[in-house]
Design goal:
Shape: globular
CATH class: Alpha Beta
CATH topology: Spore Coat Polysaccharide Biosynthesis Protein SpsA, Chain A
CATH architecture: Alpha-Beta Complex
Oligomer: single chain
Length: about 190
């Protein structure tokens, strides 16, 4: 999957989960952050950047560029913009897969399918429900960075650019593990 970068959005405080979801653990012992970085790398994404809570230490995950946010309380779109600013200096990508850390059950196959869509932006759908990661083209990413596409949410940007829905047979794309109970439901759905 040449030409695709990865951006893991892991900068939140995770109040509904009981702490930052970046460090929440899956049954196999990996953190959500590690699982998200793994799936993007296994799908061929490079480089992979993760926005993290302020003052986070480097999680020392292979081939992951850790990017602590400058302050707490930033909304998701601000976190996206900061991550895309970091990626903008890398010339090797034409698209970026944006994966919130609370979606650690996505498969590499789903990421490849979404990133392969012939579209400037793509949103995965599983059984009619939108999910993550979304994939956006470099020109859209650069327009977010320079403020031409100012949101206020990624959903709004995707609407403006006419993102394509991509059907995937992966319940992980819609498994939003934002609470411990949601994680258990997601694990059950993806078995």
């Amino acid at each position: 999957m040449a030409g695709v970068a990865g951006l893991v959005l892991a900068g939140g405080q995770g109040t509904r989960f009981g702490g930052p979801k970046a460090w929440a653990a899956l049954p196999d012992g990996r953190s959500f952050l590690e699982a998200c970085a793994d799936v993007l790398r296994e799908a061929g994404a490079a480089p992979v950047v993760a926005t993290l809570p302020p003052d986070s230490l480097d999680p020392e995950i292979d081939d992951l560029i850790a990017l602590p946010l400058p302050e707490s309380g930033l909304d998701m779109f601000a976190s996206i913009r900061i991550g895309l600013q970091r990626l903008a200096g890398e010339a090797v990508w034409t698209r970026v897969a944006v994966l919130p850390v609370d979606h650690p059950l996505v498969t590499p196959t789903a990421v490849v399918t979404i990133a392969s869509a012939d579209a400037g932006a793509a949103i995965p759908c599983h059984r009619g429900k939108h999910g993550h990661p979304v994939v956006i083209g470099r020109s859209t990413a650069e327009s977010i960075v320079d403020g031409c596409l100012s949101g206020p949410t990624l959903r709004e940007v995707l609407r403006v650019v006419g993102a394509k829905n991509v059907d995937v047979d992966d319940p992980g794309v819609v498994a939003n593990c934002n609470t411990p109970d949601a994680l258990q439901r997601g694990l059950h759905a993806t078995r």
